[in-house]
Design brief:
Structural class: alpha+beta
Order of helices and strands: EEEHEEEHHHEHEHEEHHEEEHEEEEEEE
Distance between the termini: 34 Å
Largest sheet: 6 strands, mixed
Radius of gyration: 25 Å
Helix content: 25-40%
Number of strands: 20
Number of helices: 9
CATH superfamily of the largest domain: P-loop containing nucleotide triphosphate hydrolases
Length: 371
C-alpha cells in the first residue's frame, strides 16, 4: 500500500513567511502525480516535506497507513531522485546503485541481483563499471533513478530530475521514466511516483494526474486532459498550454436577444445555450475571455471573424504561431501550415474565433464561469 495523503499541510518559516497554506492532496496507490507550478510556488517544499527533509508546521502526512510527521526520511519508505544526481564521484555506477542496499546490510547476492535488474530496466548495464565523470548527464540521471529503484520504496520522489539536461535528453529521459512507471505497475511492484517540475510539457506528458500549485496553494488537481480543457481558474489556464492561452478583457452585452462579448470596438456573438444561461448575470459587467491559440483560425467565417495586424510569424515545421494584434491587444493563433493564408509582417488578415471553445473568467475572482 503506497497511498500518500496530505491533510491541511502547512509550512511556516521562523520569519513568519508562510510557504504552504494548508493543502489537501490524496495521491492514489500506484499513481504518477506531477506537482507543477512556477518558481516559488512551493512544489519542491511540498515534496521535501513528504520526504521528511523539511519539517511541517501544521497538518498531517500519511504514507500508506503510517502518519509520518515525526519519522526520519529513512523510515518513511521513500526514495528520492534529485536534480543534481547526487552520485558519489569515487564510486562506479554499480557501487552508487548498490550503496543504500549495502548500508541496509542486504545480502551480497541479493544486492547484485537487484542492481543488475535495475540496470537492465534503465538500459545502463554497460555503464556499471564507469564512474560519474565518464558518463553524460542523462546516464548519470539513469544511475540516480537506478539507485532509487533497487531500494524498492513505497514511494518514488522526483525533484526536477531533468532540468539539468539538454532538450533532446530531457525528452528521452521523460519517456524512460514514464515507461518505468508503467513497467513497475505491470510487474505488480510499488509504483507510486510524485514528480516535481516547472515544465508544463513534462507535466502533461508524464502524469496520471497533475496538481497545479501557485503561492503555496493548490489551484487544481485533475487529469492532464481535464486541466487543459477545463481549467478552474485563469492561473491554471495561463500556466498550462504552449503557446499560452490568449486573454481579452471585455464586457458581456445583450442586443436583440443575443449575447455578445464586446472588447473595444469589436464584438463576438455567443451562440451556446449553456454559456448563454451562465453568462446572463454578467450582462454589462467586465469579464475575461480566454481562448487557446489553436481555436483562433486564420480564415474568414460568417461570424466572429475579426481583422488583425500581423506582428510576427514563427515557423514550427508543420504549424505556425501567428502573432497579431487587434486594437493593440497582442494575440497568438496556432495553425497548420497547410491552412494558413500567405502572410507577411504588417499584413492585415482575418481571424475566426471559435466561440464554442472559449472560457470566461470572472474579472474579480478569476474563476472559470462556465464550469
Amino acid at each position: 500500500m503506497a497511498r500518500v495523503i496530505l491533510k491541511k499541510v502547512e509550512k511556516k518559516y521562523p520569519n513568519g513567511f508562510k510557504a504552504v497554506h494548508g493543502i489537501d492532496l490524496d495521491i492514489k496507490d500506484g499513481e504518477f502525480m506531477v506537482l507543477v507550478g512556477p518558481s516559488g510556488c512551493a512544489k519542491s517544499t511540498t515534496l521535501r516535506m513528504i520526504a521528511g527533509l523539511e519539517e511541517i508546521t501544521g497538518g498531517e502526512i500519511w504514507i500508506g497507513d503510517k502518519l509520518v510527521n515525526n519519522l526520519p526520511p529513512k523510515d518513511r519508505g521513500i526514495a528520492m531522485v534529485f536534480q543534481n544526481y547526487a552520485l558519489y564521484p569515487h564510486m562506479t555506477a554499480y557501487e552508487n546503485i548498490a550503496f543504500g542496499l549495502k548500508m541496509a546490510k542486504v545480502p551480497k547476492d541479493e544486492i547484485d541481483r537487484r542492481v543488475r535488474e535495475a540496470a537492465e530496466k534503465l538500459e545502463i548495464t554497460q555503464l556499471l563499471d564507469r564512474k560519474p565523470k565518464e558518463m553524460s548527464g542523462g546516464q548519470k540521471q539513469r544511475v540516480a533513478v537506478g539507485r532509487a529503484i533497487v531500494r524498492k520504496p513505497d514511494v518514488f520522489l522526483f525533484d526536477e530530475p531533468l532540468s539539468n539536461l539538454d532538450a533532446k535528453l530531457r525528452v528521452s529521459m521523460r519517456v524512460k521514466i514514464t515507461q518505468l512507471h508503467k513497467q513497475l505497475k505491470a510487474e505488480g511492484q510499488t509504483a507510486t511516483m510524485i514528480y516535481v517540475t516547472h515544465d508544463q510539457v513534462e507535466a502533461m506528458t508524464m502524469g496520471d494526474r497533475i496538481c497545479v500549485l501557485n503561492s503555496g496553494e493548490i489551484m487544481q488537481v485533475d487529469s492532464p486532459i481535464n486541466i487543459y480543457n477545463s481549467p478552474k481558474n485563469k492561473f491554471v489556464a495561463s500556466f498550462i498550454g504552449s503557446p499560452a492561452m490568449n486573454f481579452i478583457i471585455g464586457d458581456i452585452i445583450k442586443e436583440n436577444n443575443n449575447l455578445y462579448f464586446k472588447f473595444l470596438e469589436n464584438k463576438l456573438i455567443i451562440p451556446s445555450i449553456l454559456k448563454f444561461q451562465k453568462l446572463e448575470k454578467y450582462i454589462d459587467k467586465k469579464i475575461i475571455l480566454g481562448i487557446r491559440p489553436e481555436h483562433i483560425e486564420n480564415k474568414i467565417y460568417n461570424e466572429n471573424t475579426i481583422s488583425g495586424k500581423i506582428s510576427i510569424i514563427e515557423n514550427m515545421g508543420n504549424e505556425q504561431f501567428i502573432h497579431f494584434t487587434i486594437s493593440n491587444i497582442d494575440l497568438i493563433s496556432r495553425v497548420e501550415v497547410s491552412k494558413t493564408l500567405s502572410l507577411n509582417y504588417g499584413d492585415i488578415s482575418s481571424f475566426y474565433f471559435n466561440i464554442n471553445k472559449v472560457h470566461f473568467f470572472d474579472f474579480e475572482t478569476e474563476k472559470n464561469i462556465l464550469l
